[in-house]
Amino acid sequence: MVKTSQDIIIKPIITERSMAALHQRKYTFKVAKNTNKIEIAHAVERLFEVNVEKVTTMNCKGRAKRVGKHAGYKPDWKKAIVKLKESSKTIEFFESMI
Q1: Distance (Å, whole) CA 33 – CA 13
Q2: Whole-model pTM?
Q3: Three-state secondary-structure class, residue 79
Q4: Rg of the Cα trace of the chain?
């Protein structure tokens, strides 16, 4: 099965920490668990037409959740922090959030 850019990049992560990192040209995304850094870099370059310098990934554990007497966990997920090159333009979607 061929993965498209939309399959790899699930959604942007909008938090205080991720918004503070925008000044360092770092953008945070929730990505598919089975992707690697190279696939993430190519997907961001194709979707947003930017040049990626570095990709940092981390696996995040799902948080505990209760519904009545039933306890369980949300699913685990993967986060990617993408740093753009200085010569690259910014991602407009995030710039409207500032």
Answers
A1: 15
A2: 0.89
A3: strand
A4: 15
Both tokens assigned to 50 = 């930017």
For tokens 């990192």, the residue is 21
**pLDDT per residue over 39-94, tens digit each?**
999 999 999 999 999 999 999 999 999 999 999 999 999 999 999 999 988 888 77
Whole domain around residue 66: which residue ranges? 5-95
pLDDT for the residue numbered 98:
64
- Tokens, residue 25: 């040209």
Closest CA to 80 of 36, 16, 47: 36
Region of 48 please: left (phi>0), alpha (psi -120 to 50) or beta: alpha
Q: Which amino acid, one-letter code, is at 98?
A: I
Residue type at 81 in one-letter notation: I
CATH code of the domain in which 26 resides: 3.30.70.330
**Residues 49/52/40/43 CA torsion (nearest 10 deg):** 10
Quick one: DSSP state of residue 33? T
Q: How many domains does the chain have?
A: 1
